[in-house]
Model the fold of this input.
Amino acid sequence: MSANSRLTIAAHALAWIGLYQRQGHEVATSEQIATSANTNPVVIRRLLGELRRAGLVESRRGVGAGWSLARDLESMTLLDVYEAVEPGPLFAMHRTTPDQACVVGRGIQPAMQGVYDGIEQTLRQELARVTLADVLRDVLAVPR
Amino acid sequence: MSANSRLTIAAHALAWIGLYQRQGHEVATSEQIATSANTNPVVIRRLLGELRRAGLVESRRGVGAGWSLARDLESMTLLDVYEAVEPGPLFAMHRTTPDQACVVGRGIQPAMQGVYDGIEQTLRQELARVTLADVLRDVLAVPR
DNA sequence: TCTGTCGTAACAATTAATGTTGCGACTGCG
DNA sequence: CGCAGTCGCAACATTAATTGTTACGACAGA
Done:
């Protein structure tokens, strides 16, 4: 379905900053995170910018600039991240309006919307159940 | 997230065929369905082709050709349709391998995969709960 | 003033879905 | 037998979203 790794990369960045701060550092740079995620620093800055708008991270400019967590990893859930970085709904409707002269064309969108709303609701509950601290714990639990 | 309406269009097509057959017709043509969904017949044929591979519909060729249901709408769930028409997973990993020399780079994919697997599981349960007969009922329940 | 990093715009590259055209294959009918 | 209507499928165009890249000004501390 989606060639969309935004949630994955955002979680990666947050886990990285969290671990780095646990090791006693003040801020992490987009360059460092980009190296770990094997991508471009601008991509990281863009994503972190969205997380900052959601109040999850803060950035500092000037010399010794970089990114830090605005809250504990324990208090951040994947739902917070999801809402910050994912724009649209999971499933889309027709890209052009179906034939309103047809019974099915008229009724299909409300019918499917009901289903999709329920699913989106469940998805949110699942994401809200996992904190970024959980993610970092699982990351560190992987044997090297 | 996804600009992907495959599930919606597939459900539309199945509901349309189901209703048309209830009205006493043998088969529906991709042209008719495309008109209702306001898209191109080839798009419908492609989708229905995937549904046929999954055993949900059958097609007839020659004169009086067209599509018919291979099973009752009651016995078809949105999960059947989803599995037939959605290729990939909901959330993607990094498009390039993260830095394996970094703890986070090494552990993030297994960690996120665990979460994503659970979500995919829940999504399937939700989809399996809705039959295409439910969808058609809801379609017809929409006031005109 | 110099240095390192963010902030952001602009644009290219990539990928997936969707739309379109064309044509051969099939099959019932006259 | 030939015709008509529709599927099957390949090839290509279009659209849209994400991701990657380059460039450069803004900022703040040394």
User: Anything to note?
Assistant: Residues 2-6, 39-40, 42-43, 46, 60-65, 87, 95 of chain A lie near DNA strand D (CB under 10 Å from a C1'). DSSP finds six helices and two strands in chain A. Chain A touches chain B through 60 residues (CB under 8 Å). The first helix of chain A runs from residue 6 to 22.
